[in-house]
């Protein structure tokens, strides 16, 4: 009797599930890089080790990250840009941990607004802002007109006072932890009708995207790569790519 073998489509389904569960997480600071493979989604900006979430420590096998799905928690914009420049990622999630660059921070940690990094094959970018402003949103949800500055200021002051009186320090921290994050999803190239199976893609991400709370925008152009591996953007200093008659380049800012 021949050995039983599952249909090929079943193997495909099992493989797709396994791939979807394999989430790569990088925690980037100015001096350290922690890199994990996780089977469960860990809470943002968790302190290693993350064994409770079935996360395994990994070493980067090359200078450029090459994965399907990557979540980056970061406190250093410059280190994050260096990690991601010339990487190959289809779905990239950026989560800023803690405050922005503080006064007196080392100059190499700051990025100019015109600086950028390039991510190949980028189709989907998610930017998460953990620093919400719920009291102002509550004011807007009550129907208050923001033009009435006096009423809005009084409302905010009263709500802050109420929270301070009702909650101790630990409870305040828990209250803030329960606030829903702001999530911005950008499906790059969608406005151009670019199919997600299209392999020739490039995301050029400007440093402003790494600012905490930034409103992120993007636009995509369809162009080509010449025989020298160059794009028709001489002002951009990008890695030479394989020649292609069609490429979707998304500028994210």
List the helices and strands and how they pair.
Layout: H1 8-21, E1 23-28, E2 33-38, E3 55-57, E4 66-74, H2 77-84, E5 87-96, E6 116-120, E7 124-129, H3 134-141, H4 149-166, H5 169-177, E8 182-187, E9 201-206, E10 218-225, E11 244-252
Parallel strand pairs: 1-4, 4-5, 5-6, 5-7, 9-11
Antiparallel strand pairs: 1-2, 2-3, 6-9, 7-8, 10-11
Tell me what the structure shows.
There is one protein chain. Strands 1, 2, 3, 4, 5, 6, 7, 8, 9, 10 and 11 form an 11-stranded mixed sheet that branches. The chain is α/β, with parallel strands linked by helices. Helices cover 23% and strands 29% of the residues.
SSE succession:
HEEEEHEEEHHHEEEE
Write down the overall geometry. Answer: globular
- From the alpha-carbon coordinates, what is the Rg to the nearest angstrom? 22 Å
Instruction: Quote the beta fraction.
Output: 25-35%
Oligomer: single chain
Mean pLDDT, to the nearest integer, reads 76
Largest sheet: 11 strands, mixed
Poorly predicted residue ranges: 4-20, 100-105, 133-140, 144-157
Number of helices: 5
Helix content: 10-25%
* Intertermini distance: 62 Å
Structural class: alpha/beta
Number of strands: 11
Keywords: Signal
């Amino acid at each position: 009797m021949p050995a039983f073998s599952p249909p090929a489509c079943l193997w495909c389904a099992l493989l797709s599930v396994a791939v979807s569960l394999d989430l790569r997480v990088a925690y980037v600071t100015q001096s350290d890089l922690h890199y994990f493979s996780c089977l469960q989604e860990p809470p943002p900006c968790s302190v290693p080790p993350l064994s409770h979430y079935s996360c395994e420590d990994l070493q980067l096998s090359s200078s450029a990250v090459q994965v399907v799905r990557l979540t980056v928690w970061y406190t250093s914009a410059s280190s994050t840009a260096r990690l991601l420049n010339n990487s190959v990622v289809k779905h990239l999630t950026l989560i800023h941990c803690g405050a922005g660059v503080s006064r007196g921070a080392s100059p190499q940690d700051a990025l100019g607004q015109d600086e950028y990094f390039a991510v190949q094959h980028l189709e989907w970018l998610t930017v998460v802002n953990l620093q919400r402003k719920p009291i102002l949103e509550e004011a807007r949800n009550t129907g208050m007109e923001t033009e009435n500055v006096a009423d809005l200021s009084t409302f905010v002051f009263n709500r802050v006072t109420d929270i301070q009186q009702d909650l101790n320090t630990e409870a305040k921290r828990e209250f803030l932890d329960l606030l829903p994050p702001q999530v911005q999803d950008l499906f790059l190239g969608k406005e151009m009708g670019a199919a997600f199976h299209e392999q020739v893609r490039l995301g050029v991400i400007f440093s402003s995207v790494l600012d905490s709370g930034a409103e992120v925008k993007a636009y995509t152009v369809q162009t080509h790569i010449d025989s020298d591996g160059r794009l028709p953007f001489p002002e951009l200093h990008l890695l030479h790519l394989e020649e292609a008659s069609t490429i979707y380049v998304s500028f994210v800012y």
